[in-house]
Amino acid sequence: MVNPRWLLSSGPMAIDSITHIPRVSLEAFMFTPLIFKPLYRQYLWGGRRFQSLLGRELEQPGPYAESWEIVDHGSDQSIVRYGPLAGKSLGELMRKDPQALAGISTPSTFPLLFKFLDAHKVLSVQVHPDDESASKRTPPDRGKTEAWYVVKADPGSRIYAGLRDGIDEHSLRQAITAGTCEEVLHVIEPKAGDCIFIPAGTVHAIGAGLVIAEIQQSSDITYRLFDWNRVDKNNTPRAIHLEEGIEATHFLGPVRLAPKNPTTDPAVLRLVECSYFCFDEVLPDSAWMTAGNCCEIIAVLSGELKLPSDWNLPTLQKGDCVLFPAELRPQSLLCQPDNHENPHLLRITVPPPRETVEKNA
Q1: How far apart are CA 226 and CA 179, in angstroms?
Q2: I want to staple 347 with a disulfide (CB 3.0 to 4.6 A). Which of 173, 208, 280, 314 is the partner?
Q3: Given 224, 230, 347, 354, which residue is catalytic?
Q4: Which of 324, 191, 86 is nearest to 333 (CA)?
Q5: Same domain, yes or no: 184 and 266
Q6: 266 and 241 in one domain?
Q7: Whole-prediction pTM value?
């Protein structure tokens, strides 16, 4: 009998010996590249561009605001779509072997959430707490540091990222109370391809006319500071979390666009590097290798992405995502144009725990 732990780390050729098994139990399982079913969120500020831009089939009428591609947070679970682990949740896999999947040595939920947002209308002005503040809540949660990659921007679209220079707690509180919050926010008019890093504690809002790819800590704590004086059909405004939001705010001034820094791989530009994730833009030629030996999320913005044939997984197209578990060796990916668009990818890697980095230094 083949050792399932050997299968876990040896790469795609290991699958050939068990192709007669349609499913595997979590008692003797292997990791393959993981493709999940998206989870949709229908909020009033959403639109229909997941269909027109990403080629999705939207089953329900009305606005679609968010498509959660990778998530393990309470009852919100990504479900494996293909392969011997089809039907398993990301949470199940993390409970079985967090080290093999995410490179995390201690039991944990998957630390990141990746999603697309379609902002047909402006979102509320928000702030998220940091780890220390979030850990004191009941129940405790992670903080929420995030980064946005602009997939599409209508002319005149705006992102509100941080506060203007000189804005302190008194000025922010006064502007919120007076209904003039926009006057104290730092404004960016983005274009497709821009990236903005939003550390926890940063006041922010995504404006109308934007499609965003977002990577964030897996957290669901949002404090709404201002909702643009909107009311519902009963003339009732949505709840504002003024005191919690002010307490969570870091008054650090404006946030600028993230620079695109070259890496040792000529196809890869580093957008963000923080203690929670690394975020890269990838412009590959016909073939490209994953890093391997770390947890990697790849999202296809254009072109086609073919995984090694031995995995027997479908070709990825615009809007598709795949997670490469940490124990897989580097994978050779075939990248091809599609509809006259060259391959364009985003990559997120989960950094190893700090103690592991120090041990290997």
Answers
A1: 8
A2: 280
A3: 224
A4: 324
A5: no
A6: no
A7: 0.90
